[in-house]
Amino acid sequence: RAKEDHYGGTRRFDPILAQNLAQKVQLESDLRQAVEQQAFTLHYQVKVDARTHQPIGVEALIRWQHPERGMVSPGEFIPLAEETGLILPLGDWVMQTACQQARAWEIAGLPLRVSINVSARQLLQPDLQKRVQSALQQSGVRPDLIGFELTETAILKHGKSAERTLNALKDLGIWLELDDFGTGFSSLVSLRNYRIDVLKIDRLFVHNLKRTSNDAAIVRGVIEMGHALNMTVVAEGVETRAQAELLTELGCDGLQGFYFARPVPVEQLCLDHAPRLRRAA
Ligand code: C2E
Ligand code: MG
Ligand code: MG
Ligand code: MG
């Protein structure tokens, strides 16, 4: 595909576009440098059991501390990393770091599942299984303490080979989670052949959730279908007690969101949750 597609594809001079382009080129070169220097950290956000509110796992979320711009959100640089292919070395770093952290918690007697976000581009790597295997072996972590969060779009982009790729990952012993469910165009029916363990309901549905809303009906249906397919259902973006209670009533197994915990650096997570994590272990 021509570069023009990515950068807007217009021929007339447009100062805003030119400025955006200059910013993007700058960000890309900064990102390249940051990948070389591994200038990233992982924050971790707890997922809790809907009934007991005990931690059941954590999600690793990448953070980039940019020298001039401060914290750049993954929403801004992950798409750029995907576009440029930098997501491959970056994704390897995330995988290795998250596996090492999961192993450290395991050794400390807190066997917490660490879920890693994996993008479409990573899923398309022919040697993905080897890369995952090497991250598992180098860290020594139990594979069932690692989850991969994949979106339906990433799986469907993969076409026919998705089933093989996901099978290969499952055969390594890691958990597969379907992230942001409900925002794509697929249905659970089209995903029934994949060995997915966890369904994460997108926060879009959680946001306006009221007992009588259409969203509540959708969420109830999704949970029931997920359960029928032997999946654990987790809701993301839970911000209020009312949402947590309703989701639990609707049958959700796990909850994640600012109401319970924000994504925090590992030291903070240990401070915030150590007693509860130990009780859960
Ligand atoms: P995601 O995987 O769906 O992660 C959830 C996002 O929602 C995170 O944003 C998290 O901080 C935010 N969040 C959690 N609880 C709440 C809540 O109660 N309310 C609201 N409003 N937001 C909440 P974040 O960390 O900015 O990450 C954004 C996206 O960037 C992630 O969405 C994921 O798609 C991507 N991402 C993050 N880390 C990685 C990574 O290591 N690799 C890849 N490939 N993608 C990543
Ligand atoms: Mg996620
Ligand atoms: Mg999500
Ligand atoms: Mg999301």
Mean pLDDT: 90
Sheet bearing the most strands, described? 8 strands, mixed, barrel
* Shape estimate: globular
SSE ordering: HHEEEHHEHHEHHEEHHEHEH
Please count the beta strands (DSSP E, at least 2 residues each).
9
General description of the model:
This protein has helices at residues 3-6, 15-37, 74-84, 87-107, 120-123, 128-139, 152-157, 162-172, 203-207, 214-228, 241-249, 266-280; strands at residues 40-49, 55-66, 70-72, 113-117, 146-151, 175-181, 198-201, 232-235, 254-255. Helix content is 48%, strand content 19%. The chain is built from 12 helices and 9 strands. The chain is globular, with a radius of gyration of 19 Å. By secondary structure, it is of the alpha/beta class. Strands 1-2-4-5-6-7-8-9 form an 8-stranded mixed β-barrel, surrounded by 6 helices. The structure holds ligand C2E and magnesium ion (3 copies).
